[in-house]
Amino acid sequence: MIDQIGDGVPAGPIRRVVTLAPDVTELAFAVGAGHLVVAVPHAADFPPEAVGLPRVAPNDAEAVLALRPDLVLATTAGNDPRVVQRLRQLGTRVCSMDVTSFARLAGACRLAGEVLGLQAQGERLAREVEERSERATVRARVLPRRDALYVVWWEPLIVAAPGTFHDDLLRRAGLSNLVPGSAGRYPRVDPELLLSPRLEVAVVPDERDLREGFARAVGSPAGARLASGAVRVIWLAADIANRPGPRLPAALEALVAAREAAERRASGVVDPGSVPPPTPEKQTPTNQRRST
């Protein structure tokens, strides 16, 4: 088997799995291999079954080796490639995921199922990812296409560029990424980009640090269009939006729903969910049903 960065994954029985990132932790559980997982990174907080497992530092190769894993699940979304390479050099079986799109996420589901001996479960999960993401993509096609940024950090301004799963998230939601493809996956860019008249939407993971950074950004000269409301800011739950794991379709669905609501408001259409129910009419002799 070949993983998503092109390295071979030797065959063999698997009884002990160590995961090095939250997204591959979720993936292992989603394909039905949670009972094999013996340790997870400190940031892993989903599913609930993973919360009580022993913790391991992803950058400590020796600590990982001490757990005697049959398989280590790693990701390009946060793991140090030098640590992953060292684990391989020391004879540990490693499978690395490189999810840069929803299609690659479906591929990661199939790969995890194959590596873990759970092909049917991996295929089912992959199809669910494909079907949910396609339904959300179809919903977004009726929305006006708008130029956008996916903000990873405000200070300094770090954004997602083409070639990332965040770029695919924007694209599928009917948004065009303003970051050039030559910038690298997550480049640091000039805050003046926030003043571009082309920028219409900023998508941001909803975390306290990013909320605080946003508050400072709107008070800066570069944040004038954010402060005025000329740029719509859409906050997405960070745990589903920042992890290229099996819950990523939920982030797409939430983004499309937020866009639909914003477009309705912009067109003057009141969202039915925001209208309070009518006050029941008070019973009077004139509107009471006459008894017979």
Count of folded domains: 2
Uncertain segments of ≥5 residues (pLDDT<50)?
Answer: 274-292
CATH class of the largest domain: Alpha Beta
How does the major sheet shape up?
A: 5 strands, parallel
CATH T-level topology of the largest domain: Rossmann fold
- SSE class: alpha/beta
Sheet with the most strands: spatial strand order? 3-2-1-4-5
CATH architecture of the largest domain: 3-Layer(aba) Sandwich
Number of helices: 11
Distance between the termini: 81 Å
Mean pLDDT: 92
Write the layout of secondary structure elements.
Blueprint: E1 17-19, H1 22-30, E2 37-41, H2 48-51, E3 55-56, H3 61-66, E4 71-75, H4 81-89, E5 94-97, H5 102-115, H6 119-140, E6 146-153, E7 158-159, H7 165-172, E8 175-177, E9 201-206, H8 208-218, H9 224-228, E10 232-237, H10 238-241, H11 248-266
Helix pairs in contact: 5-6, 6-11
List keywords for this structure.
single chain; 292 residues; alpha/beta; Rossmann fold; 2 domains; five-stranded parallel beta sheet; five-stranded mixed beta sheet; 11 helices
General description of the model:
This protein is an alpha/beta fold. The protein folds into two domains: 17-134, Nitrogenase molybdenum iron protein domain (Rossmann fold); 142-269, 3-Layer(aba) Sandwich (Rossmann fold). The chain is 38% helix and 15% strand. The protein has eleven helices and ten strands. Strands 3-2-1-4-5 form a five-stranded parallel sheet, with helices on both faces. Strands 6, 7, 8, 9 and 10 form a five-stranded mixed sheet that branches. Helix 5 runs antiparallel to helix 6 (119-140). The chain is globular, with a radius of gyration of 23 Å. The termini are far apart. 36% of the residues are buried.
